[in-house]
Amino acid sequence: MTRRYLVFLLPLLLAPTTGLALNEGLGEPPPEVDRHTPAATLAGFLEAAHTRDTGLLPHYLWLSHLPKEQQRTEGERLARRLMFVVDRTLWFDFSRISQDAQGDPADALYDSLGQIPLGRGVRDIRLRKVTGPGGPPVWVFSEDTVRAIDALFAEHGSPVLEVLPPFLFARPFWVLELWQWLGLVLLAGAAALASRLLEKGALRLGASAASLTKSGWDNQLFSAGEGPVRFGLLAMLGALGSRALLLPPPAQRGLDLGARSLALVSAAWFVLRFVKLSARFIEQKVVGEPGADEGRVRGLRTQLAVMRRIVEAATYLIAASLLLLQFEAVRNVGVSLLASAGLAGLVLGLAAQKSISTLLGGIQLSITQPVRIGDTVIVENEWGWIEEITLTYVVVKVWDLRRLVVPMSHFLDKPFQNWSKVSPEILGTVELYADYKTDVNAVRSELVRILHHEGRQLWDGKVQGVQVTACGERTMTLRALVSAADAGKQWDLRCLVREKLVAFLQQQPRGLPVLRAEASLPPEAAVALGSQLLAAPAGTPGENVLVPGARVR
Predict the structure, then answer these.
(1) Per-residue pLDDT for 361 more than 80?
(2) pTM, whole model, 2 decimals?
(3) Which helix (H) or strand (E) holds 484?
């Protein structure tokens, strides 16, 4: 008989608690409490938590295991704690939560919302269906979940949360409460101040250590760290300090994303500054050497400029890639592109053939150095200096201050003149047309005088001379050869020599070319000519005498 009663009572003992017996100490739930499906219960609990309606929160918990007189106060306390724990540890996907009043067919009594770490294991956060005769089922947080709230709060919450003034929890902005926003402001200020002090201390200590060494590289390293180190420390301190604010997962992920991005930008900034300072250090070290070769200095300057741009371009590319890979959408696009890398690589290779060849040409030019920064060149019939060399083009500063932008391929495929490839020293010529009766030795002496007096600041004292290089029907050609330290001084010296030699020839009786002609005179014209010459004042040139009846042959 006893066994028969046990068999009859066992289904009643195992049956779910009726809806009328659920949380009797809370009374009837308000009409806005919707607990008919797991999704509705979770949405209602989150909405009440968002509005901080502590009167509604206990109705979503199983509190029947507590005495009736404690269900209200304990329910509000446990609901607040569960709200804090859930906000900071779980991110719900409503597409996976059952919308059916009967729950998941695989487990019609419970519906799991996720797991929260607890100790060395995890704790399932579950909803339980409570049914009664003649009434629809309702879903609440299960008894085992409610019993574990205090343990979960002890691990994932903080006693400070229950000590803070209530107005700091009045209503959240976005997913953060007011106390968390205030905490973030204080954290940002404290992290900024701490990172600045730590940076100063670290750099001062590093500079003291660097002063003990003779190498200059460590000085460049610590100089490049001023600024990037501060922002790197700010990112690290901000990410670590935010854990104390118990931020919800979306906010914590966003703050961690910002901290990682700031750290990546700081690292890229450090690399760029270090490369710039190192290039300047190497250039100054080579220039400061006694007897440094000018050609070597320009070649080194060219290599440093090109290599620096290559490193900068690679740094920008890598930093941008790492920043974009932090975003899930961009990462998926990258995976899709990698899946079709063969075809994409072929298409991009054909499309960017010109750009790639130009880039490789820039690297080749920095190694072979047909031109260097500061070289004097003639390109496209324009005379100027190489002012800038990039990975794709070269800027030529023309003598009249115009800038000629020449593609890099021009210096690899077409001929051009480089006046300072080996040495900046250069010869210059000045050509003059003089009369056959010009005293060439006097012109040579005048050239020597010009070079030693008016042109002493321009002439390098190596080459000077005057030669007769050609003869014509009426004139001979004199070529004055001079030398200068560079093309700019050579141009100015040529202009000076030309001006002074022309002035010298003008002062000579037979310096400038004279047009000569023979005339046949009849007897009476010869007598008239003689009379005029005798009557002419002393010093009058014979060419100005008019002879009537003369015939020029």
Answers:
(1) no
(2) 0.50
(3) strand 476-484
